[in-house]
Amino acid sequence: MADQEIHYLELLEVGRRIQSCEISSQAVTRALLERIDSVDQRLHSFATRMESLAMAEARSADEEIAAGHVRGPLHGVPIAVKDLLWTAGVPTAHGMSIHRAYCPTEDATVVRRLRSAGAVILGKLQQTESAFVDHHPQVVPPVNPWSDALWTGVSSSGSGVATAAGLCYGSLGSDTGGSIRHPCAANGVTGIKPTWGRVSRHGCFELAASLDHIGPMARSVADVAAMLGVIAGVDPLDPTASARAVPDYLGTMTQGLEGVRVGIDGHWTLDLVDPATRDMLQSVCETLIGLGASIRDVVFPDVGPVVQDWLPLCAVECAVAHRATFPARRDDYGPTLQALLDLGHSMRATDHQQLLLRRADFSGRVRAVFGQVDLLLVPVCATAGLTLDRVRDMASDNSLITLGRYTFPFDISGNPALTLPGGITKDGTPLGFQLVAPHFDEAQLLQAGWAFQRATAWHRRHPAL
Asked: Is the per-residue pLDDT at 415 higher than 70?
């Protein structure tokens, strides 16, 4: 098979072909490595490439499959992981100059589980510094494959770009304030931020421990379901990982939307977004109704206070995460991360306690909303087709926090959120939306997303490269 025939296949499809010996994992891996060599010179999505290790894993996969031992749907499939996840013997920089030479001696739990499932890891994907909002000054930021002028979303910028550009069949990202959801929406791919605790964080560099979530990004809901089923679950190395049984996400994914109640806060969701985003969301509603869901009006709790609280909450926890090197090695940090850490060090204990109390109050109010509905339909961003210039203007106006209006609240509350491509602007740039569920109801999210993608083809639109 020629490269152009395979790089935009969905993960499960290429996996089926590998596992049926229609094509070898080595051939697919080699094709993607060649595509990375060609395309990523412009896109800069990879922080570290693992060519020799990937080819060795692919060769092992082919040998096992030929012997009749298929580990599962990821066996032999090339993927990539965000550069805050430990990979034994491979640099894991966390987007920081201070960790450029750091080589862990063990894999993160999620990396180990992917390898145990037979996945082939192509490399480490670029990210913002410490997974905050800006790339380190010494890092070349990834480029959106749809247009050089477009924002990539942060902090899982490399994950969004590489997945959209056909440089891997799936990737892992992390989400503390929207860092899976924004890159998915900006690059036109599918991703899930699981419930906090659904996926182990052992071996993951922290931004803010109680806000950090690890989740998969891919080109379809089915692919995301397959990856989540592998990485989720209890972990003795991470006491915060939930002991709840992991559902069969792939097995239950096709159950449909009949009778599912989808809530929408008309003011928060529709009145505060631009026309292109509003039109997309209204079209999504029509599709969901056609699939058997009902749309219910809800009043979502006021997000204003928690959107404002997210930054100081993140800052305090980030200061804890960096206590060994900041402020001692301040000059090794970029200015944006320096400012966040300074904020964290300036917080008083009484002010921090007030943040925690407001967080608990908001989380309780979100739980109450899910007493009325099964899912929520929410934008990812209020503005379609955000450009780099527009995001820079927002940063200079100190209004960058408005990017978190629809993402911060669900990191605060810990609810799972699935991001899906939902349209294309007149300028040809992708539009995304999110469905949100009660804690640990990822299965219903994936059912809804699968049904939506069966009825639409937005997730099959790809950038012209």
From this structure: yes
pLDDT tens, position by position, 289-306: 999 999 999 999 999 999
Domains, the chain, ranges and CATH?
Answer: 3-460 (3.90.1300.10)
DSSP string, 31-81: HHHHHHHHHHHHH--EEEE-HHHHHHHHHHHHHHHHTT----TTTT-EEEE
Does the predicted model carry a pTM greater than 0.70? Answer: yes
Active site residues: 82, 155, 179
pLDDT score, position 400 = 67
Sign of the alpha-carbon dihedral angle for 331, 337, 341, 343: positive
What would the two tokens of residue 156 be? 């899982």
| Phi (first) and psi of residue 5, to 5 degrees | -85, -20
* Length in residues, the chain: 465
Confidence bin at 393 (pLDDT 50/70/90): confident
The rounded distance, in Å, linking the Cα atoms of 262 and 345 is 41
Name 192's bridge partners: 418
